[in-house]
């Protein structure tokens, strides 16, 4: 069943469709999806959503701001960070729907939005599963490939001129989405051949020509020039290491030159488990044509696998295990990573640090971390240890204890510190975004070390 929906994205109304399964028991798992570069939802996203819903997955499909049925100005402008944040607004909207299980939400994106879901999967703890189809990995490197040498210099000159004109109140400069597509070929029956039945590789004009006119009635073959400038500044692949332990499926074509295959394969190599890669034959637009069925089936099975109902032991009255019940117990440290403002990855106590965190049913917690293979003191009495021994032990350990509170709507747990190896933490509140994946727990926070991700695995229940 498909219904029209609207939701508020911080003042901009976005419009789309909500697909609910005809069979099964509410609340359903849900997939949030939006299209790629300059495209609108009518361009075949209904086929994906219908396949997902038939398999028991509710699906929320919407048009990006400034495009199609959604509001937003300037029209036809793609701001990648605004689009990425709108995915998160869509997730928030989905959590308000009684038919949706807010603990089982996945995100799907393709091409440009395939890059967006990499960022969302890394940043939003509410995301339980990610499918990224032919994603943009590096806007900067892709721009350099498409505009070599002096052409890139000339393009930057156009960016500057457009910025100057807009500053003085001028209209945004516009460019075609597909330069090879004539205005007369858009939205007319004469332009239509049939659904794509033969490989078309990386030829966008051929894909649009083969599309029935009703599927591109809401589409316009133009973008603001600034959209290209913002594309060149966008680096979603830089977030891929932070997605795990959230499950990630990446789908690529083996001869894609628009979102280059080599970029996607290199990014996949940096992603953490659990992950899976599907490579289909063809170019970028074949993923929407001859390889569409394969891509839909792979995404559907990935979502079904990783958006399964939670175990019903310790279940709430609705039959779902609560976050608090899942949190209780002892967790063993898997990894502790920090990324500084420049994007560099560090490991505060080394890549093989050890530690544990404990949450009990009375609301108390403790967390301890230690550098592996700390050298022993020369003397059994630590108070008689040498100054350098004490310094090494102090710098190789981190820990605190206190109480904890949960904010399930925000997906956050707050540690209220009562005692710590570092006295300055006493009396502070340490807020962490949480995410579960099987027997693993990921905690994310902004700290003095930068953006931190700590991954734990369940050692025992309480």
What is shown here, in short?
The chain has 11 helices and 19 strands. With 462 residues, it is α+β, with helices and mostly antiparallel strands.
Give a written overview of the molecule:
The chain has 462 residues and is an alpha+beta fold. It has two domains: 2-151 and 224-306, Rossmann fold; 323-460, Lipocalin (Beta Barrel). The protein is 25% helix and 29% strand. The protein has helices at 45-54, 80-95, 112-123, 139-146, 150-167, 204-209, 225-232, 261-270, 292-306, 323-327, 387-395; strands at residues 2-9, 12-19, 28-34, 58-62, 100-110, 127-133, 174-175, 223-224, 248-253, 275-280, 329-339, 345-346, 354-359, 364-370, 397-407, 412-420, 429-437, 440-447, 450-460. The strands form three sheets. The protein has an eight-stranded mixed beta sheet with strand order 1-2-4-3-5-6-9-10, sandwiched between helices. Strands 11-13-14-15-16-17-18-19 form an eight-stranded antiparallel barrel. A two-stranded antiparallel ribbon has the order 7-8. Helix 8 (261-270) links the parallel strand 9 (248-253) and strand 10. Helix 2 crosses helix 3. The protein is globular and about 80 Å long. It starts with a strand and ends with a strand.
Assign the CATH architecture of the largest domain.
3-Layer(aba) Sandwich
N-to-C terminal Cα separation, in Å?
Answer: 42 Å
Widest β-sheet, arrangement of strands: 1-2-4-3-5-6-9-10
Major sheet characteristics: 8 strands, mixed
Helicity, as a percent range: 25-40%
- Report the radius of gyration as a whole number of Å: 25 Å
Strand content: 25-35%
CATH fold topology of the largest domain = Rossmann fold
Give the overall shape, derived from the CA principal axes.
Answer: globular
Total strand segments: 19
Low-confidence stretches: 186-194, 311-320
Compute the number of structural domains.
2
- How many helices in DSSP terms? 11
N to C succession of SSEs: EEEHEHEHEHHEHEHEHEHHEEEEHEEEEE
CATH class of the largest domain reads Alpha Beta
Structural class label: alpha+beta
Overall mean pLDDT: 89
By CATH's scheme, which homologous superfamily of the largest domain applies?
Alpha/Beta hydrolase fold, catalytic domain
